[in-house]
Amino acid sequence: MNKTIETIKNHRSIRDYKSKKIDEAILNEIIIAAQSMPSSINGQQLSIVVIQDKKTKTLIAEHAGGQPWIAKAPVFLLFITDFFKTNLAAIKNGVTQKIHESIESTLVGAVDVGLSMGAAIIAAESLGLGIVPIGGIRRDPQAMIDLLKLPEMTFPVAGLSIGYPNSPSDKKPRLPLNTFRHDESYHKENLESDIDNYDVLMSSYLKTIGRSQEGNWSSRTSSVYKKVYFPNVLPVMIKQGFDNNK
Amino acid sequence: MNKTIETIKNHRSIRDYKSKKIDEAILNEIIIAAQSMPSSINGQQLSIVVIQDKKTKTLIAEHAGGQPWIAKAPVFLLFITDFFKTNLAAIKNGVTQKIHESIESTLVGAVDVGLSMGAAIIAAESLGLGIVPIGGIRRDPQAMIDLLKLPEMTFPVAGLSIGYPNSPSDKKPRLPLNTFRHDESYHKENLESDIDNYDVLMSSYLKTIGRSQEGNWSSRTSSVYKKVYFPNVLPVMIKQGFDNNK
Asked: Which of A173, A178, A180, B158 to pair with A217, CA 20 to 30 A apart?
């Protein structure tokens, strides 16, 4: 339909990067793109920590549970939800900020991180760069806070490794479109059979890329989601000043 | 730098639309773009309800606190976090899903909604369409659930109005880049003075567009964030099966 939509539809994760650096001008364009997205009430309650230092990236790779591509990629972006800045606005105006004491701040902060990271991904891919999002930074959020000196009322939500692809990667198929697009109201009718069909497709895809041990979509997803993983998220959120009980 | 990045950097909200419909082929491309974004563990824990019915849009405009542009736009997309589908995966594999009982599901669901909505925004704008994100659907989430028949373990996170712009709109300035981009670690040093400078800029911008009653960034943001707004979010999340205390 056009080059932008082609770029988006062509997305795939890249975990193998060339040693080639990313020019500062290019990196800054990606950050500006990320900042150009809308935010709830224009609160702009998010920040990005840009990490290029090899030692810091190596530490993050360990904190994320052993993900060597984080160290190998020339750039790592950490997206943080940031109610520290909006709290400075409250202090300036002589009022007490309350939003970080409600679930709304967690929701809005995370949506805004997603919007911004989405723009960074699309901008990077439009320039021939490859990316992989890193949820593993939530495995030990306190380590990220200490390492990157994140203040109170902030929380590290997601990371993004960026670099020039060293080898091509395959495009992962998605669930059938009608499990994702629901017209006029939610439609449950065909979800089971659509999942069955997707399991067959993913099983065959995983075989092709040499990861057949992952089974299929439903077996892999349910094996992760049968437990509360990343149990450190809640206590660290509370320590940072967030309260999800209002 | 290229057309895609130009599109992203040129983002602005559009609330005034032509009556012109959006072709089905174009709408579907936007939805496919939204589905092409990465999701945590490839769980694909989100869905979009596509609303074109005038009566439904009019009801949503009311539930969102009186936002007539929702009714006027030819298309409204509701982005929902969807652990109903991943629960079907659990049932198929004979395990009990636990993820929706932890804050991780709220975070991941919202980030994935943001990523997907980001792609929908950029895809739509690349085609000359205008958009405005609608957080107001969280004002009365139960009304959205009833109206659109959303099942348990789903939650309406954000909406998006899309249509052809009827009148141009101004591009809102952002906080200074160095409040957003932090190199190697978080930098608090100049935040207060950067906010002061941005307040002056926003005050002048708001005057230009005839909305001087909003004051400036810090006065407007702090006046919203001094209270827990959208107090219905938490009880409805709990009713839908989510628990943010693990």
From this structure: B158
Q: Do B92 and A233 touch (CB under 8 A)?
A: no
Instruction: Tell me how far apart the alpha carbons of residues A178 and A171 are, in angstroms, rounded to a whole number.
Output: 19
The pLDDT score that the predictor gives to residue A1 is 85
Please provide the average confidence, as pLDDT, over all residues in chain B.
97
Q: At what angle do helices A217-225 and B83-92 cross, to 10 degrees?
A: 100
Q: Of A117, A157, A141, A136, which Cα lies nearest the Cα of A69?
A: A136
Assigned fold of A3-169: NADH Oxidase (3.40.109)
Q: What part of A 189-208 touches B (C-beta under 8 Å)?
A: 191-192, 195-196
Grouping H, G, I as helix, E, B as strand and the rest as coil, residue A19 is: coil
* CB neighbour class for B215 (10 Å; exposed up to 12, middle 13-18, buried from 19): middle
Verdict on whether the full-model pTM lies above 0.90: yes
A149 closest CB neighbour out of B35, B186, B244: B186
Q: What is the dihedral of CA A159, A160, A166, A167, to 10 degrees?
A: 90
Q: Do residue B86 and residue A221 have CB atoms under 8 angstroms apart?
A: yes
**Contact list, B133 vs chain A (CB under 8 Å):** 38, 40, 115
Contact A94, A163 (CB under 8 A): no
Residue range(s) in chain A whose domain bears CATH number 3.40.109.10: 3-169
Tell me the per-residue pLDDT of B167-209, one tens digit each, with 9 for 90 and over. Answer: 989 999 999 999 999 999 999 999 999 999 999 999 999 999 9
- ipTM for the complex shown: 0.98
Check: CB of residue A88 under 8 Å from CB of residue A45: no
CA distance A43 to chain B (A): 6
For residue range A133-151, list pLDDT tens digits in order: 999 999 999 999 999 999 9
Please tell me the distance from the alpha carbon of residue B180 to that of residue B186, in angstroms, as a whole number. 10
Q: What are phi and psi of B243, to 5 degrees?
A: -135, 120
